Amino acid sequence: MRAVQIDRFGAPDVLGLVEVPQPEPGPGEVLIRTVATSINPVDDKTREGAIGEGAPPLPMRLGWDLAGIVVDPGDSGFRTGERVIAMSHHLSSGRGTWADLVALPAEAVAAAPQAASLLEAATLPLPGLTALQTLDWLEASAGQRLLIAGAAGAVGGLALQIAHARGVEVDALVSRDAQIAFARDHGADFVTTDRDGFEDRGYDAVFDTFGAFLTEAVADGGRYASVATQAGPVPDLSARGVRTTVNQVREDGTGLGELTKLVDDGSLRLRVHATFGLHEIEAAHERFLAGSLAGKIVVAF
Ligand SMILES: NC(=O)c1ccc[n+]([C@@H]2O[C@H](COP(=O)([O-])OP(=O)(O)OC[C@H]3O[C@@H](n4cnc5c(N)ncnc54)[C@H](OP(=O)(O)O)[C@@H]3O)[C@@H](O)[C@H]2O)c1
Predict the structure, then answer these.
(1) Which residues belong to CATH 3.90.180.10 in the chain?
(2) For every residue of the chain, which 3-state class applies, written as one string?
(3) Which residue among 113, 178, 217, 278 has its CA within the 20 to 30 Å range from the CA of 79?
(4) For the structural domain made of 127-246, what CATH number should be given?
(5) Does residue 182 have its Cβ closer than 6 Å to ligand 1?
């Protein structure tokens, strides 16, 4: 079977399509035929060697997101032929999803949405779980005021829609004028590109997706979560009673099931900027790197 592998770090031209043996699913694992995956910032950082210590050893198969068809369900309760999505925590497990067949723990897998194609569904697992788990940490509930920094990105755009569906009042910082309409259309009340526009607004919670560190925006006693690991820790706000974290995404089939329901009930709309074939993996990374995206880069198998 085919897999995307690197044997050294560097620019997209280090990505190689290689023939490797099929995985044998172990106890509790589901064997899935990959239909599509997508590119996340962590894949880019892993490829260029920016993760450093803690990355799996070379040669390394890449990939976190997966949408596909169950080939061997084992004793998981999934059915052969069922459409599923999954997120593999590639950095901790080394199980990259950019391969024709992938064996993953059943707990990391969920039924795919019926209302979306598998190409669209491949955009959901990593950014969706990051959005969901971070909103849960923020305890953002109906009627509360939430600010999302980077609300038109992959994580921020899903967080915006999930929070809106929960009845949270969401304001948004976006990077460009072209993103303002997206944020408004997906549930944000106040949207701006001006990072100084939020001081003294007293948000119950702030969800920071790019290391904006808008610490003046959060109310005393509030919560501030960043997911921009590489931007470093959130400043200590304990003197104001503000809890802070840099949240790290976890494998979570139950969370994926929640996301699937939100897609199927129309609360969550998925965005594909462009789709590349697996043989175009280098071009797919180049497009990801070029930026100015309005949705995710999907890779079809
Ligand atoms: N900790 C975790 O477990 C975890 C999980 C997932 C992701 N992450 C990290 O979270 C970050 C976001 O991931 P993502 O997939 O959502 O990336 P993304 O799709 O690139 O989203 C980032 C968003 O932030 C915007 N942005 C960047 N700088 C800005 C600025 N100065 N002002 C306003 N907006 C700005 C970007 O706008 P443009 O489109 O104009 O650049 C983009 O819309 C990445 O660093 C990723 O590595 C961490």
Answers:
(1) 2-124+270-300
(2) CEEEEECCCCCHHHCEEEECCCCCCCCCEEEEEEEEEECCHHHHHHHHCCCCCCCCCCCEECCCEEEEEEEECCCCCCCCCCEEEEECCHHHHCCCCCECEEEEEHHHEEECCCCCCHHHHCCCHHHHHHHHHHHHHHCCCCCCEEEEECCCCHHHHHHHHHHHHCCCEEEEECCCHHHHHHHHHCCEEEEECCHHHHCCCCEEEEEECCCCCCHHHEEEEEEEEECCHHHCCCCCCHHHCCEEEECCCCCCHHHHHHHHHHHHCCCCCCCEEEEEEHHHHHHHHHHHHHCCCCCEEEEEC
(3) 278
(4) 3.40.50.720
(5) no
